[in-house]
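Limitations
The C-alpha cells in this dataset are predictions for the assembled complex, not deposited experimental models. Users should treat interface geometry with appropriate caution, especially where small molecules or nucleic acid strands are included. An illustrative entry is reproduced here so readers can see what is and is not provided.
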Amino acid sequence: MIITVASGKGGTGKTTVAVNLATIAAEKGSVELFDCDVEEPNAHLFVKPQNITKKEVSTMIPSVDIALCNLCQECEKICRFSAINIVAKKIMVFADMCHSCKGCLMVCPTGAISEGARQLGSVLTGYSKQGFKLTWGELRVGEAMSPPLIKKVKDEINNLYNLISIVDAPPGTSCPAITTLRDSDFALLVAEETPFGLNDLTLTVEGLKKLGVPMAIVINRAEESKGIIDDYAEHENIEILGKIPFSKEAAKICSKGLFLVEEMAEIRAIFQKIYQKIYCKIVKTENKGEIK
Amino acid sequence: MKVAVSSSGESLDSEIDLRFGRASYFLIVETDTLDFEVKPNEQNMDLPQGAGIQAGKTVVNCGVEAIITGNCGPKAYNVLESAGVKVVTGVNGTVKEVLEKFKKGELQYSVSANVEGHWV
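Predicted assembly:
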C-alpha cells in the first residue's frame, strides 16, 4: 500500500504530514517512510534515524570506444536529448543530458557504445525511535535530473498489502513529483489556503486524474472559517480528510523537529482520524479491485 | 570570412538575439560582401533542453569560422570549440553594427562560455 503525500506548492507541510502520519501508522501496524524529495530531503530531520546505511547509486550513460566508431550518426538520430552528438567528425557525449534509455547502445552497428555510469547520489536508510524505517535519497550536487534517483528510492518500497509505505513527494507538478506519485495507491494532498496554494493544488489534482490515483485533501494551517480550498474541493468532489489548525504552538514544535502527534493531543486526534479515513478508503478500493 | 550572427530578425538591420541556443535566426554572413543567408532556428525554441547543442550543430554545419552572439552556455561552447568555430559573446545592437565592429577588429574572441547552462 503506497500512500504518497504531495502538494503542488512547496512549503505547505508535506513532510510534517508525512512524518506524523507515519508515527500514527506505526502504532497500528507495519509502516515504512520514504522521502522522495531528493533535492532537499528533510524527513530525517524529524525522524532522526539510527543505524544509517548509505549506498551510492548511478545511472547508465553511453561510453564510446572511439576506435570502433564509424561516425554513422545512428546514435545521434535516436537520442531525443542531444546527449550524444557527431560534431565535425568527432563524437561528443554530454553525460548530464542522458536519460539512460540505452537507444544508442541498441542502434550502434559497430558495438562502439557500452554502458558507462553517471553518479546520481545516495540512497540512505535508518530507523526511527518509534521503530519504523526511513529511506531517503540525497542527490549529488551538480546532478540536474532528480527522477532517476527518485526511482532508486522507490525501488526500496516493498509494496505489500499489510505494509503501509508513506512517501513524501517533492513539490511541484513536473517530472520529480509525477515520478514519485506514479504507482501510488493513494495521494494525500496537503493544501494551503492561499491563491498560490490553490493554483498548485489544482495542477496536482489534474495530474493525479491522468495518473488514475485516488486522492483526498488535508488543509494545513487552516483558518476556522471555510476557505478557497473548501470551495474547490466541493466543486471537484474531493474529500477533505482533516484540517490542521493555524497554531503558533504547532509551528514551534515543528521548528524544533518534534512530532506534532507526540506533543499536541488535539493534533494527534486529527492525524488519527486522517489515518483511519485513508485506511478505510484504501481497503475499500482494494476490495473493489479484487471483485473485478 | 564566413560568420554566423544570432539575430532576432531576417535582415542585417535586425537586432542581435542575445540568446544563442534559442536565437530566432542565424544570419550566415560573408563579411567582405555582406551577402547573407537566413537560417531559422525555430526548431530549437520549444526544446526543453539541449537547445545550445543543437544550435551549435546548426552553426557548425553552415561551415562558418566564427559565431557572434550575446550569450553562449557551456555545452554550446563545447560543441563550437570542438569544431574549431570561434565564439564572440557580449555584443548588442543590430547585426550590421556588430559586423562593422567585428571587421574593424573591435570584438574579441571568447575563451570560454560566458553564462551558465540553464534547465527549464
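Some entries come with short summary sentences. For this one: The domain at 2-103 of chain B is CATH 3.30.420.130 (Nucleotidyltransferase; domain 5).
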